[in-house]
User: What shape does this take?
Amino acid sequence: MLPPRWGETEGGAEPLGHTAIPHRDIREGCLDLKAFAVDLAQVVEGQAVPEYKDPGTFFRRTFLTRGLRSTLTGVLRRLAGRDDGTAITQMTTVFGGGKTHTLLALYHIVAHGAQVSYLEPMEQILAEAGLDAPGATHFGRYCWLTPSGGARMRFFRSF
Amino acid sequence: MANPFRWGKNAVFQVILTVQWGITSLKGRSCGISSLENRVRQQYLWKCVAPDFQATGPALILIDETLSYITKASGIPVGRDYLSDQAQEFLLELTHAVNAAADVALVLTMTSSPQEQIGEAAIRAAQEIDTAIRILRRTRQAEVSAEREELSVPITRPASMATAMGTPASNRAATTIPLRAILDPADRSKPPETNSMVMPMDTMPSIANPNDTARILADERKPGSTMDMMTIMTNRIAIKTYGCVTSSSPEMSSLICGFWNHGW
Assistant: This one.
């Protein structure tokens, strides 16, 4: 017997498709698996999918877990020179647990602070961190290392 | 190797190692001059990490898949060491340098279990790096996965709310969450639109409270709570709008109870 599809009712239970509506790409069966393999360098170079490349879309699709919020606020406090910030954060999440996603969130905040500071998740983060909205130069510079492209190291300077 | 600092014969910083992907690893030998070490860390190391960097000013360093570097470098001989040894040395020096700066943050990702650390070099590197950064002050290990009570939130969050979350505050009023109509269970001809019943309060954008809507706030669903009452109501009474009500709000409890007894 085939399992019920989205929106179909089985017995008296409310179908999941009625109470938790998936995104359009899932409903229409056109989910791009590349969306699961994000690379920091691809995002910066504009080669990633919009879900990761565009800061607004990224935060719209990002659920801020308690751990993610804690990590972001700790790093932002540190960048702001606060004593209660976190200097070094070691992400030890299991495979697929959101390590790179967290780095991307930090990247978008630092690199596109002016674009994302007025978004709802960012307002939460900044309020928790006790910081003002980051301007274009608030957090200054960033760089990152990524294993993409073999053993090459990529440097990126500030905007 | 020539001393690039030209600080005289007494200042011995002997080994400057450049790894394959451009990072320069600094292995300083103590020469009793702490200021010299600080100078090297602050000025030289940062220039090696990123030539445009200065020793001052906020900086964010992101290192993804740290052990991938170590693994790839584990079989490459460099001098009397391997490239992986130099990379580890660099990371340890980097953690010291980051700690010494006031507004620099380093975020690196590691695999969380030995099962994911493939190769002897990767396992060893993970242990060494983990030990090193644990003993540094102001270092924390972060777990960002959704916790158990958070699992239901993303899938029950209505699409309209997700839109509002990514909407500028100035435009948010126009995209405020449309409060979903609750159908009378007897009327099965219409598709139910309820899709969000449990939300942590802090994920909820502010919602206006027009005449025919309740303010939506919810944090948990416990038997007997106002949240549960609201669920009961929506199952029995056809109303046009609904609110998920925080059980800790006396005001909303009173409001819902009033509705329960007297209608909206």
In short: Chain A has a mean pLDDT of 69. The radius of gyration of chain A is 19 Å.
